[in-house]
# Entry
Amino acid sequence: MLKKITIASVFVFYFLFVISYFDSAFMSYLRYIGIGILLIVCIFINGYSKKELTSNDKYYNILLYVNYFLLVIILITAFFSEYQSSSLVKFFSTMLLVIMVMYVIPQIINYLGLKKFYRISINSMIISILLSFLLNPNGRILNYASRASDLESRLTLSFYHPNLLGSMCLITFLMIQFYIFNYKKDLKKPIILIYILISMVLLILLYLSDSRTSLYGIIIFELLMLYNLIFKNKTSKIILSLLLFPIFLISVTYFTKDISVENLNFLLSNRLYLWTEAIETLNYNDRFFIGMGSYLNSQISQYDLTLIDNGYIYMVFQNGIISLSIMLLLFSLILVFLWKNTNDFNGIFNFCLFVLYLFVGIFENSLFNLSNLMTIFVLSNVYHFIKCSRFESKRKDELYENCA
# Structure
């Protein structure tokens, strides 16, 4: 009975999270209902299941302490904000995010098994995107800037912005790719074929949404996957990287030598101007260390800014350079661990997934954001992988029988 409830809760969580991005005022609150359902189910799993997910591993605990330290800094900076209430909301939402990605979702994955968890998640995502098509198949907005293609309009379906459609397609595509490659021996050929066809449709929707961040992100992810799968020896990868890096720099210099600051700002959809304005605002108010306060994109108009589409600058703007430094320390520790564990497909996938997440953070406010599904998907997968890897290396994988 508990397993059926857990399966339903995972399906509902992803379904509510995706439709919370639909173009409707009340929809945004649905994602928090989904989060609440997972929290309650996790409590029941801890109470009635023997598959308790605990960790006494030093490395994992270091990651946990760094997260705690970041929360403390966010709480301290909240008291220096002019609008303490919104800053405290940011603190509690970040704390809830840490609980979700470091404990709740990894616990549920361990209880259901990674294979079943992915299958439920994929089906929920597909149905949610299908619903967005059925509700508004012709949903589009004018292509107002220089984009990744020459499309006159960008597909949105029922989502309130085309970038959200692109992001949902990207997440679903990545889920399907992991599921097919990791469990291809257990899947029937017709099932694999169906998932491949769905993946093709997702790529078409991603292209029609003209979401550059997702389009470039998926290219980087696939190239990085190919690179790691071909060169599994770490020494070979390091040597090849050292050889390719100068070529990369020369190529970038050659193709960007005639691009002016104005052109670059235009290509980035005015992001360069917004990033500069945010930094100048911090400098003018002497708030580099503690930030201006925790605000959503729609709430920072008092600083003459419409939005800050950069997760790193957004963290500095909200909570100061100290918070950014701690976040970068956390990401560096995770990245180093994942790099050292690219021994199989699971490890390579999580490494490439985390690199993709860091890339997306350059152009979107997706870092440490509870309302961002990419953040929850990536961090919960990565933390579950780290827990599994550390326990298996210590031969304590009986607590993690459902890692694979």
Summary: Confidence is low (pLDDT under 50) at residues 395-400. The CA atoms of residues 254 and 270 lie 23 Å apart.
